[in-house]
Write a structure and sequence with these properties.
Elements lengths: L1 E2 L2 E4 L3 H12 L4 E4 L16 E2 L6 H15 L1 H5 L10 E3 L2 E4 L7 H10 L4 E3 L1 H7 L29 E4 L3 E3 L2 H14 L3 E3 L4 E6 L6 E6 L4 E3 L2 E4 L5 H8 L9 E12 L12 E4 L4 E6 L3 E6 L22 H14 L11 E9 L5 E3 L6 E5 L9 H16 L10 E3 L6 E3 L19
Helix pairs in contact: 1-6, 1-9
Bound molecules: flavin-adenine dinucleotide (FAD).
Length: 434
């Protein structure tokens, strides 16, 4: 048996950030992960895009607050990991406006929060980013739709925000956070699965977890940061009954392809959110492009009942569709002859907004439902959980009176109730865009 102040289940980028914040707040932390090391779960497949284009205020503000932490990573960690540190590459982001998404609500929030941006007309987009075709192809279609190859009838405009970018190595980000957490005394147990969440005799408070090898780790605080396995862990803990927002594992395929002229980092290419064709993409080192989907209506969603059984091999169907759509947006895009990608999983919530919250079981907390869009917010998620845990364990009722977080960058208040498991669904794109 081991005893500590807090058990964190999962050492992904968010679990490691939670561990870092709890440990530097003075708690003795044990992180348990069934995988071989930090960030080896869904974090390892992340596109690691840092952008601010969400639909609602608190997620935008969270991303805006997190961005300087990525850019000044050693300052955030308070150390330099001798095994290497991530780097942030600034590219700017282009958010296309199309039918069903004019981006005006986001723009009003950007103005309110002081996020500088420009509205670019089609000619301005072509002038600055000549590799992009500005044709409107909406709605996104499967490749066998006879209308797939139709000519565009209109031209798109877009919002451009210059400070967005990406982190070069998402797994290393988790490793860096784990290193920083260890410096504050956190202990990491790898290749050890949590199989049971323990409660006190009266069942009202968590007392720890039991691992597959029979080890019991006792703690008054347990945090579920199990990524695509988080739903399973919440069920183990018996805390799903009072949740108004569901979350479950969803297959997500991402691909790498050679960048055509103009589309590489060296060319000043931005990352692009493109609900018009149903894809997002960003430049990547080595003149490559990283490509993912935005769950357009015509694409079937593949929910995963058993996250342990997900095949990491991408499917020809999703690869072909993604490549053909990219070829519409970039006329010089050369469709590769072989798929190069990975099929990972999101833990998608009902409204694609994460759940950072307490639960109905005293001492049991969750950072889940991260919906394919919370890598960028990991440094803030750790701080949010710490605030919620500190408040709850000192007797504050976060459900009735949600903790308010003051963002150090903006001085603005972030209502942590907007990430509550009991919230009404937020009005979002219901896609990875949030
Ligand atoms: C393909 C893809 C692209 C993405 N792109 C972006 C992006 O561009 N920008 C962005 O902001 N976000 C993006 N995301 C989302 C982001 O990467 C995730 O939100 C984030 O990595 C989740 O981190 P996590 O720590 O919660 O989960 P994970 O990294 O999945 O970690 C969970 C850990 O829990 C462990 N675990 C599970 N069950 C147990 C158990 N019973 N016992 C012990 N350990 C257990 C697992 O082994 C795993 O290591 C993307 C995600 C994917 C999949």
């Amino acid at each position: 048996m081991t005893a500590c102040d807090a058990v964190v289940i999962g050492a992904g980028v968010i679990g490691s950030s939670v561990a870092f914040e709890l440990a530097r707040g003075g708690r003795r932390v044990v992180v348990v992960d069934k995988g071989p090391g930090p960030g080896a779960g869904s974090t390892s497949a992340s596109s690691a895009i840092i952008r601010f284009s969400y639909s609602t205020r608190d997620p935008i503000l969270t991303a805006w607050e997190a961005a300087p932490l990525w850019a000044n990573w050693a300052d955030h960690l308070g150390c330099v990991d001798p095994d290497g540190m991530i780097t942030f590459t600034q590219t700017g982001t282009l958010v296309f406006r199309t039918t069903g998404y004019d981006g005006e609500r986001m723009r009003a929030l950007w103005i309110e929060l002081g996020i500088e941006h420009e509205l670019l007309g089609p000619d301005q987009i072509t002038e600055r980013f000549p590799h992009l075709d500005v044709g409107k192809y909406h709605p996104p279609k499967p490749v066998d739709d006879p209308a797939f190859a139709d000519e565009a009838t209109e031209r798109l405009s877009a919002f451009y925000e210059p400070t967005a970018g990406f982190v070069d190595d998402p797994m290393l980000a988790a490793r860096n956070l784990a290193y920083a957490a260890r410096r504050h005394g956190a202990e990491f147990l790898f290749n050890r699965a949590v199989v049971s969440v323990e409660r006190a005799g009266d069942g009202e408070a968590v007392t720890g977890v039991t691992l597959a090898d029979g080890t019991v780790v006792e703690a008054p605080v347990v945090v579920n940061v199990g990524g695509p396995h988080a739903g399973r862990i919440n069920r183990l803990a018996g805390v799903t009954d009072d949740m108004n927002i569901g979350h479950r594992a969803l297959r997500a395929e991402v691909f790498m392809a050679p960048a055509p002229p103009g589309a590489a980092i060296e060319d000043g290419a931005p990352l692009v959110a493109d609900l018009d064709i149903g894809q997002y993409f960003r430049p990547a080192p080595g003149r490559q492009i990283w490509i993912g989907g935005t769950e357009p209506e015509c694409d079937e969603l593949h929910w995963v009942d058993d996250p342990d059984a997900n095949s990491e091999h991408p499917t020809v169907e999703v690869w072909e569709t993604s490549m053909m759509r990219m070829a519409r947006r970039m006329p010089e895009f050369g469709v590769p002859s072989q798929p190069n990608g990975i099929a990972s999983m999101y833990d998608a919530s009902d409204d694609w907004v994460p759940i950072y919250d307490r639960s109905s079981l005293y001492g049991f907390f969750m950072a889940c439902g991260t919906s394919g869009n919370q890598f960028k917010n990991a440094p803030m998620a750790g701080q949010y959980l710490r605030e919620i845990i500190d408040a709850t364990m000192s007797g504050h009722d976060h459900d009735r009176d949600p903790v308010q977080f003051t963002g150090p960058r903006t001085g603005q208040t972030i209502d942590l109730g907007s990430f509550s498991r009991r919230r009404e669904q937020a009005d979002t794109t219901h896609s990875v865009m949030g």
